[in-house]
Design a protein that fits this description.
Helix content is 30%, strand content 22%. By secondary structure, the chain is α+β, with helices and mostly antiparallel strands. InterPro entries: Hydantoinase_B, Oxoprolinase-like.
C-alpha cells in the first residue's frame, strides 16, 4: 500500500489497541481465580492473519513478547485446518511455545465472509494445573513431567462445538477445577470480544484497507524502533547478574549478557549464562525474547506502537541448553524469576550509556507465595504475585507499591484473601530502613505476614536476591534482600529464597515475607537532608539510619527537625573517612 493517510493509520492503531484492552477488561472481570482476577497475571493481544501482534492489552509484557512464537507453532500445526468457531488451547513450552504450564493460551481465529482476517489471543496464569505442589510452581521439580498437565495446541472447540472429553481431562488433572474452567471461559469470552471488535471495524472500513494499514503499522513501528536504536552509541555493553540458587544449599545461577548496538540494530547475546538446572527456573527461548523486548521497549522514548514491528530490529541469541534457552525435559514452572533477571541484566548493561532512562536495580520482580491444602473437606490453592518497589532513578527516589516493568500486576487485596481462603493477613505494609541509600533512595521493601487457619497445608515460595542484593548506580548502595520466616509455636524457621521442598503448615503457623528493596542512586551523603527528614517523619527511615546511612542528624523528640550544624560536621567526617 503506497498511499498512507497518517491520520487513518493512527485511527487504525487506536482501534486495534481498544480491541486488545477490551479483551483485558473482560478477562479480568469474568475470571474466577485471584491470581487472574486480582493479581492480573494474564495478557491479551490482537494478531494479524500471520500471527503477528497488532496490539497488546495493558497487562503483562513478559507474556506478550512470546505470542508470535506461539502463533507460529499453532499456524504451522493446523495449516489448512483452521475454521470459524475453532478455539485452540495450549500450554506446553516445548510443543506449543508456551512459557510454563500454568500459562494457558486460548486462541481463536477471526473470520469475515469466510476469510481469515486475524487472531484473538490470550494467555492467563491458572491457579493450579496439577503437578507435585499446589499452584504448580514447583521449584523442586527436576523435569517438566512433574509440573502438571502438558497440552500442545489442541482444539478446545471445533466449529463452535466444545470438546467435552478434553474439558474433562483438564478438570481431572487440577486441584481446583472450577477455577480452571472459570478462567478458561473468561479467556474465551475475551476472544469473543476481539472477534466482534475486529469484524465491526472491517464493516466500517474495507477489509483490504484494514489489513494494509496493519502491515504498515508493523513497518512504521520498525522505522521508529531503528531510529531510537541509532540514538544509542554503538558498542558492546556487558553485565553479569545472578539468581541466588535453589533450596537449602544454593549454587548461584549466572547470567551473562552482551548488548551490541550497531547502527539501527541491536543484538542481545547470552553466551556465558549458566546451563539449565534441575529446578523450575529454566525458561524457553520465546520467554527470553519477551524479557529482552520488554527491557528495550522501556528505554525507548517514542510512543512506539505495541506491535510485532518493534521486534524486527532486535536479535536475541542464547546458547541451547542454558537457563535462558532450555530444552526438554527442563522444568520451567518458576521461569518468571529468570524473565525478570533477563530484563534487569539488559537494563543494567545499558545504564552507563543511558543513565537518564534506567533505574537502579529493584527486587527482581514478584515474590510468589503459594499456600494449598484442604479445608472444610475441599481443596484450596492460594497464590499471588507479590509486587513491591523499584530502584532509584537519576531524578527521583525509587517508587513503592508498584509492579516490576515485566508484569503490570497487582497484589491481592487482604479482604479477598481472607474471604476466600483459610488465611489471615496479620501485617501488610512498607518495611522501614530497607531502601538502598543514595542521593536518590531506593524504594522500600514490602512485607506481608500470613497466618494459616486451615486443617493442613503446604507452602512454596519463589523469591530472590538475598546473596546478590539489588545493586545501586553511580555510588548508590545496594538495597536489602528478602526475609522468609515461618513461625510455628515457639519455633522460628528461616526459609531459602527458592523453596524446593514444600513447607508443611499447621493451624496457627505464621509465614512472614519481606520482599527485596530497591538500590540507591548516587552518593548517600549528597542526599537532600530535607528528604531524609521527611522519610523519618513518614516512618520509613529511622533516626539511627538517617545518621548512619545519610549523615543526617535529626533533633527534636516530639517534632523531628534537622540539626544542620551536626549534619554538616558528620557528613564532613564521613567524606574524610577512607
Amino acid at each position: 500500500m503506497r498511499d498512507i493517510d497518517l491520520i487513518r493509520l493512527e485511527v487504525m492503531k487506536n482501534a486495534f489497541d481498544t480491541i486488545a484492552d477490551e479483551m483485558a477488561l473482560i478477562l479480568m472481570r469474568a475470571a474466577h481465580s485471584p491470581i487472574v482476577r486480582d493479581s492480573m497475571d494474564f495478557s491479551t493481544a490482537l494478531c494479524d492473519p500471520e500471527g503477528q501482534t497488532l496490539a497488546q492489552g495493558v497487562t503483562t509484557p513478559m507474556h506478550l513478547g512470546s505470542f508470535y512464537d506461539a502463533m507460529r507453532h499453532l499456524i504451522v500445526r493446523y495449516a489448512g485446518d483452521v475454521h470459524e468457531g475453532d478455539t485452540f488451547i495450549g500450554n506446553d513450552p516445548y510443543a506449543a511455545a508456551g512459557q510454563h504450564l500454568p500459562d494457558f493460551y486460548i486462541v481463536q481465529p477471526i473470520f469475515l465472509d469466510g476469510r481469515l482476517v486475524g487472531w484473538a489471543t490470550t494467555v492467563a496464569h491458572h491457579a493450579d494445573v496439577g503437578g507435585i505442589v499446589p499452584g504448580s510452581n514447583a521449584l523442586g521439580a527436576t523435569e517438566i513431567i512433574q509440573e502438571g498437565i502438558r497440552v500442545p495446541f489442541l482444539k478446545l472447540e471445533e466449529r463452535g462445538r466444545p470438546d467435552a472429553k478434553l474439558w474433562e481431562i483438564l478438570r481431572l488433572n487440577v486441584r481446583v477445577p472450577d477455577q480452571l474452567t472459570g478462567d478458561l471461559n473468561a479467556q474465551i469470552a475475551a476472544c469473543g470480544a476481539a472477534r466482534r471488535g475486529l469484524t465491526e471495524l472491517m464493516t466500517r472500513y474495507p477489509v483490504d484497507e484494514v489489513l494494509a494499514y496493519a502491515e504498515e503499522l508493523h513497518d512504521y513501528t520498525e522505522r521508529l524502533t531503528r531510529a531510537e536504536i541509532r540514538e544509542i552509541p554503538d558498542g558492546t555493553y556487558r553485565f553479569t547478574d545472578h539468581i541466588d540458587g535453589l533450596g537449602e544449599s544454593p549454587e548461584p545461577i549466572v547470567f551473562e549478557v552482551a548488548v551490541t548496538v550497531a547502527g539501527d540494530a541491536i543484538t542481545i547475546d547470552w553466551e556465558g549464562t549458566s546451563g539449565q538446572v534441575e529446578g523450575g527456573v529454566n525458561t524457553p527461548l520465546p520467554f527470553t525474547k519477551a524479557g529482552v523486548y520488554t527491557a528495550l521497549r522501556s528505554i525507548m522514548g517514542s510512543e512506539l506502537p505495541n506491535c510485532h514491528g518493534f521486534t524486527r530490529a532486535v536479535t536475541v541469541a542464547a546458547p541451547l541448553g542454558t537457563v535462558v534457552n532450555a530444552v526438554y525435559p527442563a522444568p520451567t514452572g518458576a521461569r518468571g524469576i529468570t524473565g525478570y533477571r533477563i530484563i534487569d541484566c539488559v537494563i543494567a548493561a545499558l545504564a552507563p550509556v543511558l543513565p537518564d532512562r534506567v533505574t537502579a536495580d529493584g527486587p527482581g520482580g514478584a515474590s510468589v507465595p503459594a499456600i494449598g491444602g484442604w479445608h472444610d473437606g475441599r481443596p484450596f490453592v492460594f497464590s499471588e504475585t507479590l509486587m513491591g518497589c523499584w530502584g532509584a532513578a537519576l531524578g527521583h527516589d525509587g517508587q513503592e507499591g508498584v509492579p516490576h516493568m515485566g508484569a503490570n500486576q497487582a497484589n491481592v487485596p487482604i479482604e479477598l484473601i481472607e474471604a476466600n481462603f483459610p488465611i489471615r493477613v496479620r501485617r501488610y505494609g512498607i518495611a522501614p530502613d530497607t531502601g538502598g541509600p543514595g542521593r536518590q533512595r531506593g524504594g522500600h521493601a514490602l512485607l506481608r505476614e500470613y497466618e494459616f487457619l486451615g486443617e493442613s497445608g503446604v507452602l512454596t515460595l519463589r523469591s530472590d536476591k538475598r546473596d546478590f542484593p539489588p545493586h545501586g548506580l553511580d555510588g548508590g548502595e545496594a538495597g536489602s534482600g528478602p526475609i522468609n520466616r515461618v513461625l510455628s509455636g515457639d519455633t522460628e524457621r528461616t526459609l531459602p529464597v527458592l523453596v524446593t521442598v514444600p513447607v508443611r503448615l499447621r493451624r496457627g503457623d505464621v509465614f512472614l515475607h519481606v520482599t527485596p528493596s530497591g538500590g540507591g542512586w548516587g552518593d548517600p551523603l549528597t542526599r537532600d537532608p530535607a528528604l531524609v527528614l521527611q522519610d523519618v517523619i513518614d516512618g520509613t527511615v529511622s533516626r539511627a539510619a538517617a545518621r548512619a546511612r545519610y549523615g543526617v542528624v535529626i533533633a527534636g523528640e516530639d517534632r523531628p527537625c534537622l540539626d544542620l550544624a551536626a549534619t554538616a560536621a558528620l557528613r564532613w567526617d564521613g567524606r574524610r573517612m577512607p
